[in-house]
Hints:
The protein is an alpha+beta fold.
Amino acid sequence: MADMLSTTAAAPTIIRxxxxxxxxxxxxxxxxxxxLDPALTRIHATLSVxxxxxxxxxxxxxxxxxxxxxxxxxxxxxxxxxxxxxxxxLIVALPGRAHSVETLVELAPESxxxxxxxxASGGLLCTQCEAEGFRRIxxxxxxxxxxxxxxxxxxxxxxxxxxxxxxxxxxxQGDLEGGxxxxxxxxxxPKPCYLFALVAGDLACNADRxxxxxxxxxxxxxxxxxxxxxxxxxxxxxxxxxxxxxxxxYGREYDLDVFNIVAVADFNFGAMENKGLxxxxxxxxxxxxxxxxxIDYDGVEGVVAHEYFHNWSGNxxxxxxxxxxxxxxxxxxxxxxxxxxxxxxxxxKRIEDVRILRAAQFQEDSGPLAHPIRPESYMxxxxxxxxxxxxxxxxxxxxxxxxxxxxRFRAGTDLYFDRHDGAAVTCEDFVLAMEEGGRIDLTQFRxxxxxxxxxxxxxxxTHDPASQSVELTLEQVVPATPGQPDKQPxxxxxxxxxxxxxxxxxxxxxxxxxxxxxxxxxxxxxxxAPVLSINRGFSAPVIVETNRSQDDLAFLSAHDDDPFARYxxxxxxxxxxxxxxxxxQNVDDGSVIEAIRNALTDPALDPAFVAExxxxxxxxxxxxxxxxxxxxxxxAARDALQQKIGTALEPxxxxxxxxxxxxxxxxxxxxxxxxxxxxxxxxxLVALGAEDGPAIAFAQFSEADNMTERQAALGxxxxxxxxxxxAALDIFYNRxxxxxxxxxxxxxxxAFALHPETVDQVEELGKHKDFTLNxxxxxxxxxxxxxxxxxxxxxxxxxxxxxxxxxxxALDKLNPQTAxxxxxxxxxxxxxxxGRAGLMRAELQRILAEPDLSKDVTEQAxxxxx
Length: 866
Ligand code: TRP
Ligand code: ZN
């Protein structure tokens, strides 16, 4: 096998968007026969192939690590000389326009550590094909514009694999000799191979049903290990809510008779939308109060919805090529965000989503890996499942919805789905449908697909008492990004309002379109200078700089009627104070304390919203506001302000903490909000250094009937050096050592800790008997979390960089996709002092010097050095 596959180590190829060509051969039908066994699985495939257009090119079937044991054309076994392998692909010359091509291959799923293709996880056999995993299962044109009807036959040992699932509808099943059995599944909807899935294993089912808007009954199944069945109720509720929501909001109905979800423990991503058979990372299915936080519950709801919504935005209408990834991901994230907002609080959901966007996407967009939501080239497509494609992609759709209004937006999506149902299309097709259906001109707006980088908008408001008018001058700058030194002005929709400071009222919310590099807007009827509220609702994914005073911000933090803008004013107030302190200025922080007091004592406010507004911006967000990040100064300033706020408002914190103690667990918004606020209060109580702080936290940790309060208490204790810290970590470990998802929290809490010895503790935890590189959740819990802990990761010794680089090097040999995801934190060296930058670069160079490095890590590390 080895010699057939060995190739000379060529420089990795770069795939370019402009090089797209329609497929030479189509595959309208495929029959797959799986003889499943973890050690040796045999896969027989029969492809009906048809020549696409007039050409004489051979059939090329992608393969990755496959050896054909047999190749047949129209039933005739070919000689070795009648086919050959080229970069893993099987090349066969075919004489006519239509043929039947058969291949036979063998795999060992149990030794597939990449978790791409067919692999074993916790005794199950399952698949992951997006983006290019199908070529690790069988020879096939592995590209999303080749759509086929699948007919899948599977055979396996009945005792070990009593449940056999695949896409579409179950057709037949039966027993065989020798304790084996079989099943046949057919999917009537043509689909690209990245949506293929099968699962075999000993699974229990939470079975339910849903009646669609046209009255069809759909059988729903959530398949998990028997012991996990009690933890599937929330996912099932989320699924039914999603199905109803997509009918109500987008008019989209489910189309098969069954919809199955399977939870697996080892998974490279969150979940996968395979047609009729979604496969999930178990962390986005399993939830109960004992082990799941409210954030986990929301994560389950959001990801179940996301994958379900893909049935239309992704599956029924799919991508022509992987440069169009945001076509399905940006749109589907926008859909799941809207759904979650409808299920809970719009205000809080928007704040959470923007926080994630800024933490992940703005960082990406300002560094060496910046790319537009529709990239121009890639080396390894797995590296492009990014915050830019997903989250900025969602913001771009959100802006369209805002500019069109709900009704026209719906007309646009209706046209898009109807026009392209069953087809593989491009982002441009989407934009054209939105222009036509939504009656809008998106000519300039298309630059959001082309240009990377977060636009900066300067907003200056000047008042002229003589004419009783104000002039708002807006200026935009789109920063240079790799490969894009010069930028064109973007079309930026900015919601704004002007507040009368005497009455705290405004004359209406307006949508301004900033389309020029610099533009002015004049508003009349202002005897005194109003206060500017801009980018309300975070209407555009931009960075806004204003000339507003701390008094203006304090005013908005108390009076803005747009909840996001109100939150934002408070954050900006805090940022200004903290950046001032970091720069050694003696900035007055009284306004921050007063703003927090106001929020805590305003009975009209939702506690969940209050909890969001009163937390200080993260250390990483503060770093993003600086040219050169000083992690130690940021930590010190934030810590000091936290202590000061804690002390100034101590009686309030004690009061809030006591009052929010619930009597029994509930998942209502009110109960979730109370927990969020209670945890924030606890945090300040401990931060202020109250003598009984650790005891209060330990009591909350011990007495809580839910993980939200237990983990928050543990996290708060982990930041300090009390005896309670050690005790709580031990108790937590002993209680949950057998439950992988919960043990992840134990690793993650320590990796996130704002504690001077975190870097040493992470080193120890990497050697812990429960740490393993084989499980991506565990790796992310330790090294992923640590790399996001700015103060600890950027320890000036460089030890943090070394730990992460060691992990990348070791993991690359097992699971390159997950290894590559740890590279970007090392690539932010330009934003750090020379000492740190040099250490970071040295680690990137050490990674690149490794022999046999994957394409995944090579691409990320080499781009990060530029
Ligand atoms: N399409 C999946 C989603 O958005 C993403 C995904 C699942 C994925 N598994 C993957 C991407 C493996 C890359 C590799 O929900
Ligand atoms: Zn998705």
